[in-house]
Amino acid sequence: MTSQISSILSQISSPADLKKLSFAELSLLAEQMRHKIISVLTKTGGHLASNLGIIELTIALHYVFSSPEDKFIFDVGHQAYPHKLLTGRNTTEFNRIRHDHGLSGFTSPFESVHDLFFSGHAGNALSLALGMAKATENSRTHVLPILGDAALSCGLTLEALNNINPDLSKFIVILNDNNMSISQNVGVMSKSLSRWIHHPKFSLLSRKLEKWLMKIPRYGNTIARRSHKVSTCLKSFFCPIPIFEQFNLAYMGPVDGHNIKKLISLFQTVRDLPFPILIHVCTKKGKGLEIAQENPSKYHGVKANFNTAAEDKLLPAVKPQLTYPDIFGKTLCSLGESFPNLHVITPAMSLGSRLETFKEKFPERFVDVGIAEGHAVTFSAGIAKANVPVICSIYSTFLHRAMDNVFHDVCLQSLPVIFAIDRAGLAYDDGCSHHGIYDLCFLRAMPNMIICQPRSAIVFQQLLQSSLQWTRPCAIRYPNIAALQGDPIATDVNMRRDPGLGEILSQGEDVLIVGLGHMCSAALSIKLQLLAHGISATVVDPIFIKPFDNNLFSILLMHHSKVIIIEEHSIRGGLASEFNDFLATYSFKVDILHFGIPDAIFSHGDKDNLLKRVGLDTDSMVKRILTHFNFRTKKSPSNKLSIV
């Protein structure tokens, strides 16, 4: 990189600085931004391919429009890294993006006035934009929802399209089409017509015509607003009308999303049109990095220290430990062999949930429905109704979007859909929009629902196999962390698990510790630390949150008056809430100390530090336990550690 190129990005402290640059300098700026993003993400990880593809488009938008007066709404916000660089965030915080003391990987109002909303879930931008346009319709504000093409598979986007007012002005929808989700719907004639429509001479003619029409008494304004139908009619004469025209959106495109000069010219032409318009911009995901451009899905999100060279040079030094999603993917393939009609459904999460191998082995039994969580759930219900086993693989944070489908189409019918709920727990680098810490709040209220969480790889496999024998809907939730390979007591992978039966992992006298899922490891670690103070603990894994093992805990509470509950879930509505309901039903009086995620918004961060921030690191928990129960160190342990 030359010093000239390096100096351009450093000059940009706000979008207004772009307007001082020549087209040549803007092109150099795009090159510098691309280099910056690649350089940073090799150290931090993050969303790579989508951000490399949207750089020129972002530059052109900020050049023509004036954020924050004009409203940019990204769908999804993971394509906003270039936007961050151009809005005063080319700082050390950008160099630590998605890590402690770094920027969010999504748009965040906490960071900047240029970020209007948190944007971690797809499909909401058009609805948000319509609301803002309605509220500012008599102002000079432009509203620009910037949609990734995957957003078009969301039902919410289609609902918003159906609600567009044809009289909206200064409402410009940008469709960033990187050939990942939609097919080409226009031909050569439409491209030629688009070039003609935004040709300077045509633009001048259009403006003169509009001014002339506005002078017509009484009907001038209405005629002027409808004048864009001329171009629509011409398009329909030569080629099929794009679907957007049917939703009161004038259509223009496709446009080369990497030609800054043409993009700027187009945006200047359409910026003050008195009707809503959609600009179809074609970009290349991974632009500027060969391996990302050739395999954009694989390089959509990357880990830190990824290799930017050819893939055949990528030699991992250490084989990583298997995560819970890894275990899920491997077990799923085994179950696919044992159950020849097992179907797997996912809403656009096949890579993250490790479903690619199952997809390759059993393509006729795998369906990725796109970003359509509600449809994924109800589609699964239809399969289950036909007495065919089905697993709906979905992230915890995205299951929120299908709550009614879970209730009405699955639980109300008591259909045996198996929900494999990935990313249950803190999302760490993805942050507040992706934490899987709320699902138990509504799942516990669902009639007929079985809810469980494994503490280890072995128990996970047992639950997956057993769930295919259950006759009710069930949810198996698990985090995206390294799976515990051993287990305190479980050894047989093929052991059947029956709903509502927990397990004692270790016995003691002074206090009862209840850990949910992977937090059993923390519970056992805390037991050892308490033992050093002469305090003996019983550790229990309930396994099932619903149905709860009332019999086991009734027996345990006859011998324990002090209880500790540990869960990586919101303190509202999770395991502790289930435990309190149990206490109220059976009239037990105990002293409870609850460790969970506080009722607040927690941003992204590195795992250890984020756990410490929410009070779930073992050192913090031990200190609180000793203080809360007023434990004093005994001269000798009251009971040695025993595993039963």
TrEMBL record:
Binding-site list for Mg(2+): D149, N178
Xref: InterPro entries: Dxylulose-5-P_synthase (IPR005477), THDP-binding (IPR029061), Transketo_C/PFOR_II (IPR009014), Transketolase-like_Pyr-bd (IPR005475), Transketolase_C (IPR033248), Transketolase_CS (IPR049557)
Chain residues that bind thiamine diphosphate: H78, G120, H121, A122, A150, A151, N178, E373
SUPFAM superfamilies, per database record: Thiamin diphosphate-binding fold (THDP-binding), TK C-terminal domain-like
Transmembrane among keywords: no
Domain Transketolase-like pyrimidine-binding: start-end pairs: 322-486
Protein keywords: Isoprene biosynthesis, Magnesium, Metal-binding, Thiamine biosynthesis, Thiamine pyrophosphate, Transferase
Gene Ontology BP terms: isopentenyl diphosphate biosynthetic process, methylerythritol 4-phosphate pathway; terpenoid biosynthetic process; thiamine biosynthetic process
Pathway linked to the protein: Metabolic intermediate biosynthesis; 1-deoxy-D-xylulose 5-phosphate biosynthesis; 1-deoxy-D-xylulose 5-phosphate from D-glyceraldehyde 3-phosphate and pyruvate: step 1/1
Gene Ontology MF term list: 1-deoxy-D-xylulose-5-phosphate synthase activity; magnesium ion binding; thiamine pyrophosphate binding
Gene3D superfamilies in UniProt: 3.40.50.920, 3.40.50.970
EC number: 2.2.1.7
Nucleotide-binding listed as a keyword: no
Reactions this protein catalyses: D-glyceraldehyde 3-phosphate + pyruvate + H(+) = 1-deoxy-D-xylulose 5-phosphate + CO2
An annotated GO cellular component: cytosol
Textual note on the cofactor: Binds 1 Mg(2+) ion per subunit. Binds 1 thiamine pyrophosphate per subunit.
Cofactor needs: Mg(2+); thiamine diphosphate
Transmembrane regions listed in the UniProt entry: none
Domain of life, per lineage: Bacteria
Family: Belongs to the transketolase family. DXPS subfamily.
Summary of subunit composition and partner proteins: Homodimer.
Xref: HAMAP family: DXP_synth (MF_00315)
Function: Catalyzes the acyloin condensation reaction between C atoms 2 and 3 of pyruvate and glyceraldehyde 3-phosphate to yield 1-deoxy-D-xylulose-5-phosphate (DXP).
The protein's name: 1-deoxy-D-xylulose-5-phosphate synthase
